[in-house]
Specification:
heterodimer, A: 319 residues, mainly alpha, 15 helices, B: 465 residues, alpha/beta, 6-stranded mixed sheet, globular
């Protein structure tokens, strides 16, 4: 069937009308197919989506304005009371600050580690293939398990200090998770370590998509490894950078498990990121306040992610 | 159809077994009374293995009357425990299943227990019974009037010793069964360290305690071990300083009516004194990263001379050492701001609540389990748990060290802690941890406590908030 014939058929809706003689007009194939698969078939999927995704999402916008708590069964609308309550003591501001620092450090480190690994393991040798698997393994591990393992590893009498003591000959008891300034960075590095394998994989895919003729042209022009990376590979990796940065940013803003398992928000609330604080408030039975925080988090993620994605997309086009 | 036949067969068999008293009575020595069997002390003893607990004549009479254990072959109960109480009821569950034919599924809820249980409740999950802290402010998160079964008329209530009779009662109704001696906050001390520093009489009042701490430091001994990594033990040094105003009623009634604040001088002074203990170096050098487990080890072996703690510390030490070793190394004394009033803090390991599941068979089964626990099985239970008796006429087992008896005896002159008396729960320890790291002043700790208190009291709908 030619393109013209196909288009002309689409321009003839009259064939759908019944003929004047009362006989039914022949129904085109595409319309018969539509009749065989009516919209009712979509209902189960729509129902599932509504119950498990749409309704909870909509309720997230409703509960913050109620007095929902563990202490009584009734749920009444009370306006902005929950928001006033969470803004009152400054903990929300601290949690927001910790979350943003955490997200920034993870977004940078995870991408640097991932890109570095991808460049190092780019060639398809057997050793590189094996190492790619090794570096991807932490992605498959449970985040809680990773957190607990690192907590044990970094305690003052943990394996790291034992190793340092053996090497240095001095008794090292440094509290790696005991600093109110640096523990947030340590936990962010753990997070980056866990997910760098995924970034590596995406960068590897990006590197594989670089046209070989461009690399050959660069070599012919006398470009070295660094110059080739700078002028050819990195610009062509722009879509991978956009994807990885967005993924890391959104994933980190919603992070909970690694921080909860490693520090539980401590020391002195230094690593109390948004979701850890929300979990604590929810556990206190103050569900409306926790829901209000969830809404604030949603707004923060939206406010951050959209400009970042727009910037990165624009950057892709300019490169 | 097949299912119906099986059910008919099961009911018929069960009826025949009950009528002929063959259903396990030979192993328990039970006597059939209608559809119940009376589990004698023999049953309890056999379940406890090498039990050394003894019931006196009076108790035996009481337990004989109260130990009617129904046969419950088709009842399946679910019991939630915390990590700290995960094995506490194992002996009871085993003996109960053997005596009644019921099955009890134990589910360990991860820590923090008091946070995770209300969260699970919110999702609709509900066990038949569970360990839970028997204070008004923690049970409020479970909506106790709606979700818990009142236990005032249970047979074991009348057997409680005077020191625990009022525990577990909220608004005049008993919602919690106390199963072990409620925790008491006081000072655990290393006897050798005290002797080395020349301390022969126990301090009376917090100022004397600090003076002794300075003597210990001068003798080259670390006075207190603080467990900053676990955070929760940090509250106790402040808690003990509130005993006098708690006893004379000048503190909590006004606070609970929102006529006073946590920022008043009583709290801020207590917090400031605790801060000065840290600032004067009267604690272990690694107080920020110290752990509860290491606290027990340090006080036991004398690395640190004292720890202000509750019964959990003794349980931790008991798991590793014999009663004789413990009594040789450790002592205990209660302390308060100006005297020796103990502070009681019944926690989830001490109490069990029954849930309103709207299933009469399971509710009756849970009540039967509790009746068995605090009735026929009680001597065996305390022997297995190596804990002191809280029932009149039942002696504490020989395996209980003297220090545990001292702690239990101090309950008689004790007041409820800052986790029990307030109408709303406050995570004071978290704010004290912030203070340890220099992130909060004592005034800010008090303000954060007040903020949380107001938030929860308002959510509860407490009058005045």
């Amino acid at each position: 069937m030619s393109v013209t014939t196909h288009l002309s058929r689409r321009r003839k809706p009259a064939v759908l009308r019944p003929s004047l003689s009362g006989q039914k007009a022949p129904v085109p194939h595409s319309h018969r197919s539509r009749r065989r698969h009516p919209w009712i078939f979509v209902l189960p999927a729509v129902a599932m989506f509504s119950v498990f995704f749409l309704a909870p999402t909509l309720l997230t916008f409703f509960y913050p304005f109620t007095n929902w708590s563990a202490f009584h069964s009734n749920i009444d609308v009370v306006g902005l009371k929950s928001f006033r309550s969470i803004l009152h003591d400054g903990s929300l501001r601290n949690a927001l600050q910790a979350t943003l620092i955490y997200a920034f450090v993870v977004a940078v480190c995870q991408n640097l580690f991932g890109l570095g690994l991808a460049l190092l393991l780019e060639e398809d040798t057997w050793l590189n293939r094996a190492l790619r698997t090794v570096f991807f393994l932490p992605v498959l591990l449970s985040a809680l398990a990773v957190g607990y393992v690192f907590r044990a590893f970094l305690t003052p009498d943990g394996a790291l200090n034992h190793a340092l003591s053996t090497i240095s000959g001095a008794h090292v008891t440094f509290a790696w998770l005991g600093s109110t300034t640096w523990t947030l960075v340590v936990v962010a590095l753990i997070h980056s370590w866990k997910w760098m394998g995924l970034s590596m994989l995406i960068y590897l895919a990006g590197l594989k998509a670089v046209p070989p003729e461009l690399l050959e042209a660069a070599r012919t022009d006398g470009a070295g490894r660094w110059r080739t990376f700078q002028a050819v590979k990195f610009p062509l990796l722009a879509p991978a950078v956009t994807f990885n940065v967005t993924l890391a940013l959104i994933g980190t803003l919603n992070s909970f498990d690694i921080v909860q398992a490693t520090t539980g928000g401590g020391p002195a609330e230094a690593t109390q990121i948004f979701n850890v604080y929300m979990f604590r408030v929810f556990g206190e039975g103050l569900y409306a306040q926790a829901a209000a925080m969830s809404l604030v988090l949603f707004l923060v993620v939206t406010a951050l992610a959209i400009p970042v994605i727009m910037f990165l997309r624009r950057r892709e086009l300019s490169l | 159809m097949k299912i119906t036949r099986v059910q008919v067969l099961a009911v018929t068999t069960a009826s025949l077994l009950a009528l002929t008293a063959c259903g396990g009575s030979s192993s328990t020595g039970a006597t059939p009374v209608g559809n119940t069997t009376s589990a004698t002390s023999g049953a309890a003893t056999s379940a406890a293995g090498s039990s050394t607990a003894t019931a006196t004549g009076a108790a035996a009479g009481a337990s004989a009357a109260a130990s009617s254990v129904p046969k419950l072959p088709r009842v399946h109960l679910t019991m939630w425990t915390a990590q700290a109480s995960a094995t506490e009821a194992d002996q009871v569950i085993g003996a109960f299943e053997k005596a009644t034919g019921a099955t009890v599924e134990k589910v360990v809820i991860p820590d923090p227990y008091e946070t995770n249980v209300p969260t699970k409740f919110a999702s609709g999950a509900k066990p038949d019974l569970m360990f839970y802290q028997p204070s008004q402010n923690t049970l409020a998160a479970l909506q106790y009037k709606k979700n818990l079964l009142p236990l005032d008329n249970e047979p074991w209530v009348s057997r409680y010793a005077d020191s625990v009779k009022q525990q577990g009662i909220i608004d005049g109704t008993r919602y919690a069964a106390i199963v072990t001696s409620p925790s008491v906050i006081g000072v655990y001390y290393n006897k050798a360290d005290f002797a080395k520093a020349g301390i022969t009489t126990m301090p009376v009042g917090y100022d004397e305690l600090i003076a002794d701490a300075k003597k210990l430091k001068a003798a080259g001994i670390t006075p207190f071990y603080e467990a900053g990594a676990d955070k929760w033990p940090l509250a106790w040094q402040v808690a003990v300083q509130l005993a006098e105003p708690t006893k004379d009623g000048s503190l909590w009634p006004a606070l609970n009516a929102n006529k006073d604040k946590w920022t008043n001088p009583v709290f801020t002074d207590a917090i400031t004194k605790y801060q000065s203990v840290i600032q004067q170096g009267l604690v272990n050098s690694d107080y920020k990263t110290g752990t509860f487990v290491n606290q027990g080890t340090a006080v036991y072996d004398g690395t640190a001379a004292m720890a202000v703690q509750l019964d959990a510390l003794l349980s931790e030490i008991q798991a590793k050492h014999t009663p004789a070793e413990i009594d040789k190394n450790l002592g205990f004394f209660p302390i308060s701001a100006k005297g020796s009033i103990a502070t009681n803090n019944p926690d989830q390991t001490n109490a069990v609540v029954l849930l309103n599941t709207e299933n009469k068979q399971r509710q009756d089964g849970a009540k039967a389990l509790l009746n068995f626990w605090l009735g026929a099985d009680y001597p065996a239970f305390i022997a297995a748990a190596k804990t002191t008796s809280i029932e009149t006429g039942v002696d504490s087992p020989a395996a209980v060290p003297q220090i545990a008896r001292t702690i239990s005896a101090s309950l008689a002159n004790s007041v409820p802690s800052l986790y029990i008396e307030p109408v709303a729960h406050v995570d004071l320890y978290l704010y004290l941890a912030d203070m340890l790291y220099g992130k909060k002043t004592p005034q800010q700790v008090a303000k954060a406590s007040q903020d949380e208190f107001t938030q929860e009291a308002t959510a509860q709908g407490v009058p005045g908030f």
